[in-house]
# Entry
Amino acid sequence: MSLANLESFKQNKKEDMRNNQPVTQKERPLRANATLVSKTNTKGVITYSSKDFSEISEYLPEEMVGEPHNMIRHPDIPPAVYGDLWSRIKSGHPWRGILKNRSRSGDHYWVEAHVAPQYRNGVHVGYISVRRSPNRAEVDQAEKFFQELNRQGKKAELPQPSRFAAFFKGLSLKARLITLVAYAFLACVVPLLGFFVGLATEVRIYTSAAMGVLLFPLGLWLVQSILKPIEKAHRSVREMGMGDFSNTL
# Structure
């Protein structure tokens, strides 16, 4: 095992073993317009805490800076959830989920958390977490899910998407556009090649029709996976410019 892998292993074990006590199982309501922001270095040590985050956590900002972010972890959250979070953000992707955090007194508060890597001049320097008040239905669903994972014990695992779905979800924008262009090119070239090699007219017609039919869902997938998210991002940025930070991006 390399030194880097050893350090990562130790960090993950440290994350798994954190069990903050006591807990009261009393919920602290989070203001609907509150935005909890925190930043950490690459090892999960807090470098910044916003006023709202400090207030609900019952710690002063200066008490939080320099401490590991798992100081607000609630023991009811299964290790598999944080394992999924760390796996996602360490691979350079953002993570979104409903979490139950612990305040200093042992009370708890629910958040819709968005965690993402931070970069400066192309260098990974840490992570940023933005949390807002969650939908109550999502909280109820998350609570039942966490209880089920805790019943499963250490063997609990989060359901993973199929390899087929994960492959398409992981395709970059460039790869998706190349796929569409390449298929459109083949849809034009294949019937032409059929003409030169002497395929029957009916075969060429059926081939063209089949490729044309398949082009429709491919184009629909492109619209759903690229254009709609871009439109949503544009709308959200415009709303943030007007001071509205209540929407999820």
About this structure: Residues 1-15 have pLDDT under 50 and may be disordered.
